[in-house]
């Protein structure tokens, strides 16, 4: 006779649906757009290609920080607070870039 013990570990249910897909897509867009903005701001501040490289390095550090904070770059459940923070950072970078040009 074989006895099968029930698995007593709680399962981690991941929310699925359009909302999580939209948040993951928005995260990808904001991270990519933010990387480009950081490169343009670096180029504008230093007025050289070296500034763009420094902006790219800053973006890589930001993405690594994001990954360490959430466990993955694109986790299954992106917190709304993090998504709003990414949007605010991108808006600040756009405003800074506009002020540099003008």
Describe the structure concisely.
The chain has 102 residues and is an all-alpha fold. The protein is built from three helices and no strands.
Task: Summarize the structure in words.
The chain starts with 17 loop residues before the first helix and ends with a helix. Helix 1 (18-46) runs antiparallel to helix 2 (49-70). It is elongated, with a radius of gyration of 20 Å. The chain has helices at residues 18-46, 49-70, 80-101. The longest helix has 29 residues, at 18-46. The chain has 102 residues and is mainly alpha-helical. The protein contains 3 helices and no strands.
Number of strands: 0
Shape: elongated
Gyration radius (Cα, Å) is 20 Å
Query: In which range does the helix fraction lie?
Result: over 70%
**Main sheet makeup:** none
What's the overall average pLDDT, rounded?
88
Put simply, the count of helices is 3
Termini Cα gap: 81 Å
User: Strand fraction band?
Assistant: under 5%
Low-confidence stretches: none
* Secondary-structure class: mainly alpha
